[in-house]
Amino acid sequence: MQTITVLGATGSIGCSTLDVVNRHPDKYRVFAITGYAQVELLMKQAQACAPRFVVLADDNYLEQAKQYALQYGVTAEILCGAKALEDVACAAEVDAVMAAIVGAAGLLPTLAAVKAGKKVLLANKEALVMSGALFIDAAKQSGAQILPIDSEHNAIFQCLPENFQYGKLSAAGIQKILLTGSGGPFRQRSLESFSSITIDEASTHPNWSMGRKITIDSATMMNKGLEFIEACWLFGAKANDIQVVIHPQSIIHSMVQYIDGSVIAQMGNPDMRTPIAYGLAHPERIDAGVAPLDFAEMANFTFQTPCYERYPNLKLAIQACEEGQAATTRLNAANEVAVSHFLDGHIGFCDIARVNEETLNQMEQVSVSSIQQILDQDKAARTVAVDIIRGKFAC
Ligand code: NAD
Ligand code: MG
């Protein structure tokens, strides 16, 4: 029996995690679930999985949460605030933590789980993009096992040799990590019409159903950029070990190419319950409730190279990855600001990459070596990005 905490339980990954967990009551017990604004959903989840703690990010929704707790007969203790999020991530009773808060907000609770030596199921890629070496070093020190939940990294993990050692790609005969991505909804749209892309158009992914922020990141391919950085940290790879390949059908979730000419791919229907089940049960396999692939139904299996003119955010992310930690932290922060302003209707789709680029250009190079410095860079980049948006778009 494994005891788990689900950070970000009310999100797309959180809901899929509880779906898999609820299929295996003999294997998993839920210690805590956390959420932000969707308190009714959070309490319905608590009614179904009976955790010991339900945690809110802050006390804004506490009264509402208490009322829903009464309504749904939830007896779990309700906590709120940043410290409570960290406490349920590192509590002694917990074996595994699903890190599924979106964005920088997930950094500290995810790190708390890492430092406490938990099995960490990492969906929250922004936490790793922000803190890179500190995150990986903390895991090495505590013995925490990091299991990638991002479908691409989960695929790469599955395609690596069992005895793969962190950063030793050539010793394992690896030539390239082939990071696949669908190319999003605008893969074939004329570049001239990009400036008229609407929020609704950008919020509709052709293959995956996901949270709002990652859906926009997929449309700009910033998601693939963040994943590029994530892959470097997860496997100890260098930027030139990784190649991004567009595969519009999202059936191959990524591949590893070996020096003998073999390419090993992991495939499956685009359903996050597969990598979630893999992470939960590793090294075993459990039923995830995912429909089997039907090869007879697959008409096409195509691939192409991404064009940076169409996806400037992808280029920015690869450049930031080569530049170092401060750049990736800042890019992540600027992008969170830009995406939220896009979703609020303040800036256009193409402005997201412009804000990101300008934020990086306006900030001087520094080196960062502590979490406090990372948080400072994150804050500073947000201020710069907001100023750019205010200056340019007067909102
Ligand atoms: P989502 O928006 O659906 O859910 C986010 C969760 O975080 C919610 O539970 C929300 O309550 C919580 N949250 C939001 N702001 C918070 C704050 N300030 N403090 C505490 N909690 C907060 O997002 P998602 O699509 O489930 O993605 C979650 C993470 O997983 C992201 O980092 C994303 O990049 C990654 N991921 C998602 C998918 C996917 O298919 N959805 C795939 C791969 C990776
Ligand atoms: Mg992914």
According to CATH, the fold-level topology of the largest domain is Rossmann fold
Give a quick account of the main beta sheet: strands, pairing sense, barrel closure: 7 strands, parallel
What sequence of helices (H) and strands (E) makes up the elements?
EHEHEHEHEHEHEHEHHHEEEHHHHH
Q: Percentage of helical residues? A: 40-55%
Distance between the termini: 52 Å
Q: In order across it, which strands form the biggest sheet? A: 4-3-2-1-5-6-7
- Ranges with pLDDT <50 over ≥5 residues? none
What is the percentage of strand-forming residues? 5-15%
Count of helices? 15
SSE-based structural type: alpha/beta
Give the CATH H-level superfamily of the largest domain: NAD(P)-binding Rossmann-like Domain
Rounded to the nearest angstrom, the radius of gyration is: 20 Å
CATH architecture tag of the largest domain? 3-Layer(aba) Sandwich
The CATH class of the largest domain is identified as Alpha Beta
Family: Belongs to the DXR family.
Protein name: 1-deoxy-D-xylulose 5-phosphate reductoisomerase
Cofactor: Mg(2+); Mn(2+); Co(2+)
Pathway: Isoprenoid biosynthesis; isopentenyl diphosphate biosynthesis via DXP pathway; isopentenyl diphosphate from 1-deoxy-D-xylulose 5-phosphate: step 1/6
